Amino acid sequence: MPLALPDLQAAFAAHIVGDDRADLVASVVGDSIPAAARLRVYRHHVFHSLATALSTTFPTVQALVGDEFFRAMARAFVAGTLPTHPVLSEYGAGFASFVEGYAPAGGLPYLADMARLDWALNVAFHSPAAPRLGAADLAAVPAEQLPAKSVSLAPGAAVVRSVYPIDRIWAAAQPGASGETVELASGGARLLALRRADDAGFVTLSTGEAGFLEALAAGQSLEDAATAALSAEPAFDLSTTFSRLLASQIFAAMQ
Amino acid sequence: MKPVAGIGLRAPHLAEIAHDKPAAAFLEIHAENYLSASPTSQAVEKLRCDYIFSIHAVGLSLGAAEGVDEAHLARVAALTGRLQPAYVSDHLSWSVTGGRYLNDLLPLPYTEEALDAVVRNVDLLQERLGRQVAIENPSCYLGFAHSTMSEPEFLSELARRSGCGLLIDANNIHVTAHNLRLDPRAWLALPADAITQYHLAGHAVNDAGGEPILIDDHGSRVADAVWTLFGELVRRFGARPTLIEWDTDVPALAVLLDEAQRADAILSAASHAARAA
């Protein structure tokens, strides 16, 4: 009795990720190239193409560990986490968490945070360059109303924090970098990944700025976000920070 | 002469094409790479004034028993609305089961059950887009023992029942025929009226336990045997918009344009022969 189409497709997927299915193998025509070898062509392509997709989305992680190590790690991720949609640039949301628990990468404690930064840059890159809040928009709001206003971040903008200097590690891993040695214990980083006009990039934030933006992203008012920032960084100055962030085209709108 | 062959628009060539605007009958893009509002998508959309577009989807999974993903279909429809392409296509294959995508163009058994599923999915796609789409013959590395039709018979029935066009990839015929021990001339029995496009690409020769197996990797120039087969297809069915695809080890743009010119020569020779007859 041949497999019905839904069963055949389910068996095919199970076989591809490593669960050898005798019923599927029996339904494939084999000759001097046996059925199992024919199925291996598809298994190889699925893993290879998804590992390649991950290397495109996580280029800094790949640069840090090399292609061979990256592919082995990516294949282990793919086996447990197939895409749930066909757009490859949206595949890999869980990769950073996977890297964190991937024992062979244990000697690189910053690797998972670098995966978070790569992912944030990828998300920002694919986000719309929607209109941004400018100084003129701000000037239109009566000063006494400002503290109660909330401000939304640009689409795709996200704060990435690490106890490691991932901004300097990122720079050292870029193609053509000078090969600077980064001291791991030299302090953590707070970065804001964001869509720019023609690409995506990040700006470094002080502790107070990071707290301020995270509070705004959570929907808090400017006044409450500033209070949160001040408790993180006593020297935090709202007007200096706000002008700098406004100039960096970080805000989408004020409500 | 105005070119009739188009080329695949790949990211490494985007800036050069936007700057030089080389002659090409059309530019083909993979739908799934341009669904977001990335700077790359924006750059491609700017070329809409200079080029005719072909949207080639690789992720609609039209052979999936569980049907078409409505959310993905809506995004492809939105892209189609923005780019107003001359052609829209996807493959006779499946990629998704149980909501998990295998990122490959997987083979179908050629049975009435599979035909019903593909017709249902293609009907839905054509209804949502409000236009005819073309379905491409896949490159296959295996066949199923319970198939009751040949691939050309399956494609002919699909076109008859759904009204879809057929996109005939000469390289895929060559690869499938070699790997499944079939005669490539079997595809010459396809209905000429349904054929709306041709594809051409290179393939690799890999080893499967000591036996050569052809892999459709789109990573080299079109093979001589495929050019010969393409000539036979064109003489049999007539000239159609033709695409040169190159997706791995993407060469200089000039190489792609050179392959397109070679396709042009074959297509125009066939047109002259048809007019003379």
Summarize the structure.
The complex is a heterodimer of chains A (about 260) and B (about 280). Chain A has twelve helices and five strands.
Description:
- The complex is a heterodimer of chains A (255) and B (277).
- With 255 residues, chain A is mainly alpha-helical.
- Chain A folds into two domains: 1-108, no CATH class; 128-255, Outer Surface Protein A, domain 3 (Alpha-Beta Complex), CATH 3.90.930.
- Chain A is built from twelve helices and five strands.
- In chain A, the strands form two sheets. Chain A has a three-stranded antiparallel beta sheet, with helices on both faces. In chain A, strands 1-5 form a two-stranded antiparallel ribbon.
- Chain A is elongated.
- Chain A starts with a helix and ends with a strand.
- The mean pLDDT of chain A is 95.
- Chain B has 277 residues and is of the alpha/beta class.
- The radius of gyration of chain B is 18 Å and the shape is globular.
- The mean pLDDT of chain B is 95.
- Chain B is built from eight helices and twelve strands.
- In chain B, the strands form three sheets. An eight-stranded parallel β-barrel of chain B has the order 1-2-3-4-7-8-9-12.
